[in-house]
Amino acid sequence: MSAGVTGYDPDVRFFATRYKQGGRTVFSLDLSLTQIAGLLPAPNPEKPTEGNRRVKESHARAFGDYVREQREWVAPALGLRAPDIFDFEVQETIGGTEFGVISFPRLASTDLRILDGQHRILGVHLAIQSIANDIDRVRSGLSAARRNDAEPAVVQQFQEKIDSLAHQRERFDRERMSLQIFIEEDQAAYKQMFFDIADNALGITSSVRARFDSRKVVNRSLEDVMKHALLRGRVDLEQDRIGRTSPNLMGAKHVAEIIRTLQVGIEGRISRRLEDELREDALVQKTNNFLDVLLAAFPPLGAVADGEMTPEELRKASLLGSTATHRVLAGVYAELVDRHKRDDDEVTDFLRTLAPHMEGPVTEDSIWITHVPDDVFSPGALAPRSRRQDLKTLRDAMVVWATTDPQWLSAVELVA
Q1: pTM surpassing 0.90?
Q2: HSE on the CB side for 269, CA within 13 Å?
Q3: Radius of gyration over every alpha carbon of the chain, rounded to an integer in angstroms
Q4: Is the pLDDT of residue 311 over 90?
Q5: Tell me: the pLDDT tens digits for 15-67?
Q6: Which residues contact 408 (CB under 8 A, 6 or more apart)?
């Protein structure tokens, strides 16, 4: 049999390192994404793996799409567990690490079990299958175009798409991900390992994600927006929840929500098309205009910007200390400016009529109780309920007030 024919080899061999971690033997190696899909079966979303949680196909598919679309993708090592099925030929030892060649029987590859990374593994499987499906679909389109004597430019478009997909497939075969294989046979022990990995992992907050995910145009606008007089030094860069005693007015997550709301409303999302069309400088300018309107309309926010009042003091006495209120006001501003073509001075004038009613807590005869439907506010509250539908209801009510100028609002203002 020719030495070049490897498909009949009963063993699998890779370069690897061997070391100790927590008393266990660990092998570390790197494989191409195609090799990973060939070595490890796709996790089944319908059948959780013993010692692991149920995999979410949507999350896995999102990872596969991320690798396909982002040439500068990054991912941590996959964690696997297995009984001691390996042979290891040591070629060099440096410190506590041995370098060499690992081998194990192909039939024993089913003994490799996922400890950490099942969404990434399923994502790789789904991405490879999706590339194959896309290539098949575009090839069919190319064949049809040729049969129908399509214009050369049309044929060329099909061919360029095939070339792009082929390059994507080649990238999956060339670019690699690390694997760590822990030698562990005891079921209770590997369940504990899974818990320890999950328990010691520091989850990323939405505020941190907003600051570091530069692929989103909203996030790229964040740093400049946080320089505004109202926000400078008053944004929590790490936490999503702003407690009563926090020295910050809001978190980076909430600033990003305001920027997004000003573009697409409370219920809207920024599509891929909009991601390409929106400009950071325009987002920053619109957000700064909105924040300027808030300062002009609401004296307590001006006092915060001037350092005469702390965010903590504001939260104790005003609805304006609530991040939910900020987002609703952003939604009102966006509706009045974009849909009703009001200028900033007109929006400021309307918000000034609301300023006396921003004092808290909310009372039974407050306009927030008597003229906002669906119990968005409760008596004694300093903020509206924060469900999206509640925020939308409140925004819609305030936009109606701004566009109809109800007599009761003017009457209440005069009494105040």
Answers
A1: no
A2: 3
A3: 29
A4: yes
A5: 999 999 999 999 999 999 999 999 999 999 988 776 677 899 999 999 999 99
A6: 367, 371
Whether residue 98 contacts residue 136, with contact meaning beta carbons closer than 8 Å, is answered with no
Residue 416 has pLDDT above 50, yes or no: no
Please state, in angstroms and rounded to a whole number, the distance separating the CA atoms of residues 261 and 279.
15
Q: Do 252 and 223 touch, CB atoms closer than 8 A?
A: no
**Directed axis angle between helix 280-297 and helix 252-264, to 10°?**
100
Question: Which two tokens mark 214?
Answer: 């530069």
pLDDT at 251: 95
pLDDT of 113 above 70: yes
Alpha-carbon span 215 to 33, nearest angstrom: 23
Torsion of the alpha carbons at 379, 383, 386 and 389, rounded to the nearest 10: 60
| The pLDDT of residue 414 is above 70 | no
Provide the residue ranges of all domains of the chain, joining segments of one domain with +.
11-200, 206-415
The answer to whether the bond into 247 is cis (omega within 30° of 0) is: no
Answer for the pair 83, 24: CB distance below 8 angstroms, yes or no.
Answer: no
Q: Which of 302, 329, 304 is nearest to 316 (CA)?
A: 304
- Quote the CA–CA distance of 49 and 118 in Å, as a whole number: 9
Q: Which amino acid would we find at residue 62?
A: A
Residues composing the chain = 416
Average pLDDT, the chain: 92
Task: State mean pLDDT over 232-244.
Answer: 93
Token pair recorded at residue 12: 């699998």
